[in-house]
Amino acid sequence: TQLLEQSPQFLSIQEGENLTVYCNSSSVFSSLQWYRQEPGEGPVLLVTVVTGGEVKKLKRLTFQFGDARKDSSLHITAAQTGDTGLYLCAGGSYNQGGKLIFGQGTELSVKP
Amino acid sequence: NAGVTQTPKFQVLKTGQSMTLQCAQDMNHEYMSWYRQDPGMGLRLIHYSVGAGITDQGEVPNGYNVSRSTTEDFPLRLLSAAPSQTSVYFCASSQTIIGGELFFGEGSRLTVL
Fold first, then answer.
1. Contacts from A10-13 at CB under 8 Å and sequence distance 24+?
2. d(C-alpha A26, C-alpha A22), whole Å
3. Mutating which of B30, B98, B101 best tests the A interface, going by the most A Cβ atoms within 10 A?
């Protein structure tokens, strides 16, 4: 059974601080995605990474896929109050068919 | 621009009752899935489908049935509701099985008394 462990589960920081969220597994994934969810809505895709060691940037957000494709990180530089939300990593692999599984999520609160 | 449409948005059931959560997508996506979301547990995969006529179990399939008779629709059935099934349910669809963007519905909040 594939599992994705996210840490930390909760994060409360001041505006302007940097933060990193981690997503770890003992399994290899063909692709790993990060989603952001706001209260009362479904998650929305931020990024997909498919190559070991891959780094993608989305404005102040930097995503990295581990070399062995078992882990990923999300780094936010100079957090803003608008970054507040639930961040979820999700992984899928071809040898698991169509199963896309999610981590437990990281609830981020950025205070002004 | 409907995307993924889930109904109902809210439902209260008594233990033992049955109901169907409806999910429809208008993007001609082959892949559809149902997740439940509980506090501190992220999204857990209930059932998924890689195309019409094909369904498979996810992480937490017990107590739920699905069918996929058309590309567009993927209903989730609770045959005998239990309080443990109180949750927020999300339907999602994607153009590709692996690595494709999952498009989610707005969610259905189910309470079982």
1. A10/A106, A10/A107, A10/A109, A11/A106, A11/A107, A11/A108, A11/A109, A12/A108, A12/A109, A12/A111, A13/A79, A13/A108, A13/A109, A13/A110, A13/A111
2. 14
3. B98
- How far is it between the farthest Cα atoms of chain A? 45
Cα dist. B27→A99, B3, B32 in Å? Answer: 20, 6, 11
CB-CB under 8 Å, B90 with A92:
no
| Facing residue for B98 by CB, picked from A31, A40, A41 | A31
What is the pLDDT confidence band of residue B1, given thresholds at 50, 70 and 90? Answer: low
Chain segment B10-42, per-residue pLDDT in tens: 999 999 999 999 999 999 999 999 999 998 888
